[in-house]
Amino acid sequence: MTTITGTDAITLLDAAHTALRTAVAGIPADGWDLPTPCEHWTVTQVLQHATGDQIGFAAAITGGPWPSEDPFQPSGRLDGDASALLEQALKASATAFATVDADAEQVPVPLPQGPLPLWVAAGAAALDAAVHAWDIAVATGRPSPLTAQDSRQLLTVARQIVEPLRAYGAYAAELTVAEDADPTAELLGYLGRHPAWTPRS
Fold first, then answer.
1. Which residues does the UniProt record annotate as the domain Mycothiol-dependent maleylpyruvate isomerase metal-binding (predicted)?
2. Is the pTM above the cut of 0.90?
3. What are residue 35's DSSP bridge partners?
4. What CATH number was assigned to the domain covering residues 6-171?
5. Residues 6+ apart with CB under 8 A from 41
6. Distance from first CA to last CA of the chain, Å, rounded?
7. Closest CA to 131 of 68, 200, 53
8. DSSP state of 192
């Protein structure tokens, strides 16, 4: 199993934030209502969810404001510029995690598990941003933004947190992938996503 330190997780979070920024910047003008791998959610709703989750991680650490709407019931209507709203959320998340000691064992998170070691807490925020970057990218016909190295680390984090979250509907049931599947396909399958998903699948 891949070993991750708190410092590794912060680096992973930065990479996931970059992937999400890039995915959102590439949404075409007619792409906001496209279907995504998140069943019943459009591109806009996935973005709202991902933005809200990053705000939630920041709020849990800092005691600051929580998302203005439930990330698990996104309206599909954006109130403002999407990139600007996302940037505010990502900045809040990154700034909050930067205040945490690299060896911290009790980091508050907006998850039912309660406080987690930094490598898991920051990794959970990274997992959320990264997988939704993938959702948006493939929904708009672009390549996966996930690298093999990042996917290996994200899978290590996922195995720490995902099983209890399935009961809350945060992740679908694990899907079987080929034994020789690449790290990204393995991660996506574990999270209940079809690695070969397309808007027409």
1. 13-137
2. yes
3. 42
4. 1.20.120.450
5. 35, 49, 74
6. 32
7. 53
8. T
